[in-house]
Design brief:
The protein is mostly helical and about 120 residues long. The protein has a domain of about 70 residues: 2-Layer Sandwich (Double Stranded RNA Binding Domain), CATH 3.30.160. Helices cover about 45% and strands about 10% of the residues. Strands 1-2 form a two-stranded antiparallel sheet. About 10% of the residues are buried.
C-alpha cells in the first residue's frame, strides 16, 4: 500500500506503507487477554474484532513492517497486564484526629473574619 503525505515521486511510485490486520477472535490468545483487548475501546479495533494497524513512518516496507509488529506487541503486552484489584482501606485514627484539628483551626480563623460586635 502507498504511504500518504509529502514525498513527491517516491510516495507515488513506492509501496512502503503496511496495513497489519490481527483477527482477535480467531487468534490463539487466552480468553482473558481477548476480553481485555475488547475492553480497551481502541478505535483501531473493528466491530468484527479485527485490530488494524497502519504503519507508514519509515521509507522502507521492512521497517514499517517491524514498526507495525512492534506496535501490535505493545498492545498485546498492555492487554496481558492484569490490573491489580483495589483493596478498600480506612483512614487511621491519628489521621482522623489531625483532620478534625485542622478543621477546628480553620473554623476559628474564618469565625474571626466576621463583623466585630462591640
Amino acid at each position: 500500500m502507498r504511504s500518504q503525505g509529502a514525498g513527491g515521486q517516491n510516495v507515488n511510485k513506492v509501496e512502503s506503507a503496511v496495513h497489519l490486520r490481527f483477527d482477535i477472535p480467531a487468534s490463539s490468545l487466552p480468553d482473558a487477554i481477548k476480553e481485555r483487548l475488547f475492553e480497551m475501546k481502541d478505535r483501531r479495533i473493528t466491530k468484527e474484532g479485527i485490530l488494524v494497524i497502519k504503519a507508514q513512518r519509515y521509507r522502507t516496507r521492512e521497517k514499517n513492517r517491524e514498526d507495525a509488529l512492534g506496535r501490535l506487541q505493545e498492545i498485546l503486552d498492555r492487554a496481558a497486564d492484569v490490573p491489580l484489584e483495589r483493596r478498600p482501606t480506612r483512614p487511621t485514627g491519628s489521621s482522623r484526629l489531625k483532620r478534625l484539628e485542622r478543621k477546628e483551626k480553620r473554623s476559628a480563623v474564618k469565625s474571626l473574619r466576621g463583623p466585630i460586635d462591640w
